[in-house]
Amino acid sequence: MKNQLKTTLKRIAFLTWFPCLFLAVILEGCVGFGVKSSEGIEYGNPFYEHMKYLPKNQLVDRISEQDEELIWEEMNALELEQLGDNLLQKKKAADAYVKYEKLLAKDPGNTLIQVKMARALIIGGFYEDAWKLLKTLIEHKPDLARAWEVMGIVYFEKNDYVQAQSHFNKALSLDTSRWQVYNYQGQIHDIQKEYAMAAQAYEKAICLKPRKGFLYNNFGVSCALAGLHEQAVNAFKRAVRLNYTQVKVFNNMGTCLAALGRYHQAFEAFSSGVGEARAYNNIGCIYMLEGNYEAAIESFERAIAITPKFYTVAYTNLKKTRRAIR
Asked: Could you check whether 1-44+217-326 and 46-175 share the same CATH topology?
């Protein structure tokens, strides 16, 4: 039964959050958000977290568009670029693109701004426009590693992993310090079930950026998919110590701890990510998968009892568990 649990968890592991419905003993798929995923894999955000968090713009909401335009015109190049970066960080791709465009008008030869414009287009889902911009840039600056990197991201987002890897490799041939390239390559290897190669790619990224918590989360995912749950747990703990505390890392950790049979620790990990009620539901799901129906029922009942409002998911799981016993 433990091997069955591990196999099942490897298939469904690393959900953004765990309260899912059961059909017999199979967890229905849950939808993640904000990250590239495959087979339920939940990666750390590779695209925005490296950008600086900037102070909120001090423009009051009631300022006129004309006055705002004048303020933008008075900004120096660095201020305008920071404003664009801030908007890109907030995923306001269109607004960021406009700021970069204004900056490019002042400095037409600024290749970094052109790459950032391409990033904004990617975030906005305009892959073809990003591709055209980068293609022109690469034709004029074939030795620009960051342009090859972002072109690789375009292909990655279009699920063309052959072309993505080709462009990532070209970027690395020009600049081996492109740590985000290694992170993307790790995700591609995971998607292709090449877990050892994925782990190696993440380790290279970590060597370059050892303080990036999401890289340890991604490394942990590869370890877990390879069945190395203890190593995965250690990686997730390192991510948390580096203040990467998104829900996914706690659920990743809880899933692996459960696969190791350390249910109390798994519950604590789930609780840190989604709260006590959902943690009871999560651990109940795991007990259900193992066929430990009594423990599953107790967990679902606790989840329902401590929830301020009726916990529909836990109640549904409870009914399905009772039906499974019958």
From this structure: yes
Helices 127-140 and 145-157, axial angle in degrees (round to 10): 160
Does the domain at residues 46-175 carry the CATH identifier 2.30.40.10?
no
Contact 219, 203 (CB under 8 A): yes
Q: Token pair for residue 136?
A: 């022109």
Q: What is the mean pLDDT of residues 229-251?
A: 97
User: Per DSSP, which regions of the chain are E strands?
Assistant: 22-23, 26-27
- The residue ranges of every structural domain in the chain are 1-44+217-326, 46-175
| Domain at 1-44+217-326, CATH from 1.10.132.30, 3.10.129.10, 1.10.274.10, 1.25.40.10 | 1.25.40.10
Could you identify the residue written with the tokens 């795991």?
286
User: Is the predicted pLDDT of residue 47 greater than 70, yes or no?
Assistant: no
**234: Cα separation from own chain's centroid:** 19
Q: Are strands 26-27 and 22-23 parallel, antiparallel or unpaired?
A: antiparallel
d(CA 223, CA 104): 43
| Best CA proximity match to 314, nearest among 273, 289, 278, 263 | 278
Q: What CA–CA distance (Å, rounded) separates 45 from 66? A: 36
Residue 209: count other Cβ atoms within 10 Å of its Cβ: 16
DSSP letter for 35, please. Answer: S
Among the residue ranges 39-53, 105-119, 161-175, the one predicted with the least confidence is 39-53
Burial of 216 (0-12, 13-18, 19+ CB in 10 A): buried
Q: How far is CA 252 from the centre of its chain?
A: 12
Q: Check residues 62 and 279 and name the one with the higher pLDDT.
A: 279
Question: What pLDDT is recorded for position 261?
Answer: 96
CA 62 – CA 59 distance, rounded (Å): 8
